[in-house]
Amino acid sequence: MNLLFLLLGLAMILGGAHFLTDGAAAVAQRFRVPEFVIGLTIVAIGTSTPELVVSLLSAAGGQSDMAIGNVVGSNLFNVFVIVGICALIRPLPLTAGNIRRDIPFGFAAAVLLFAMTSDRLLHPGGADRLGRGDGIIMLVLYVGLMLYTIRSAGRTAPPEAAPARSGPKPWIAVAMIVGGLAALVGGGELFLKHATAIARHLGVSESVIAITLVAGGTSLPELAASAVSVVKGKTELALGNVVGSNIANILLILGTSATIRPLTMGGITPVDTGMVVLSALLLFVAAFTFRRRTIDRWEGAIFLAIYAAYMVYLLR
User: CB neighbours (10 Å) of residue 231?
Assistant: First the structure.
């Protein structure tokens, strides 16, 4: 029964994220907001909404393991599983923007997470945690990164606003936003409650459940968006979606969660956060193997093998 309610909660989260994103995009287009701004903000954050809701509710409820583990697990799933699967479907070429901006920023965010959650390395005997000060720094960095990205995109985007498109009427768009938010919050609470119950029933720590089951579930929007992009031949969108989501997970989601309530690491170890750094580093290395700016099929297979090995390590 717990599993059934867990799946119901996940379905509500995914459906709520879909309606919220579509409704917000419709409102933005109604007011002639440029499409590239919609893509960089509403759509990018929209695919990370499930992680945001789960982590915020976890932080507010004092479940730090779930809040941090969800982000750590989602980032690992995004790189090792989503990029791995997409590369197996079709090799992923990297754009100049991926190499100059997206991947380096993603690596920097991963290193920042490791540094901020490794207090015991600097102060033996203390506790690893993300304090409110850390959260505020993350949020400031995220806002700065968004402004920089929008300005950079604006230099290459047409100066005029995107033309108005036929879409849902304003009251329908607002209803989609309100309904999406309600589904997200309700589904998030249902998902968390029964994920915790399953962890206790199986005798598995909440941190492990967060890194595996919860993270995999909340990463489904990124998996769907990236796989569809690759199948349609828009391979550059797949990698940008993954890297952008990973940056938002760390700076926006953990930043907001830690600002609301300081987070202790609990069962999340330096090995787990170190794996986030490793995933970002391997993504960077894969971009330059054999002087090809492409993530090839064999590299995708290696990514999937690394994730499988990490899962064995967690569940041993």
Answer: 13
Contacts of 152-159 with C-beta under 8 Å, sequence gap 24+, read: 152/101, 153/36, 153/37, 153/40, 154/34, 154/36, 157/34, 157/36, 158/34
Q: Can you tell me the distance from the alpha carbon of 221 to that of 219, in angstroms, rounded to the nearest whole number?
A: 6
Bridge partners of 294? 93
Instruction: Give the pLDDT confidence of 236-245 residue by residue, as tens digits.
Output: 667 777 888 8
Q: How far apart are the first and last CA of the chain?
A: 26
Q: Encode pLDDT of 97-151 as tens digits.
A: 777 778 889 999 999 999 999 887 776 666 788 999 999 999 999 999 888 877 7
- Look up residue 69 and give its two tokens: 């583990």
What is the pTM assigned to this prediction? Answer: 0.81
Closest CA to 283 of 117, 146, 110, 144: 110
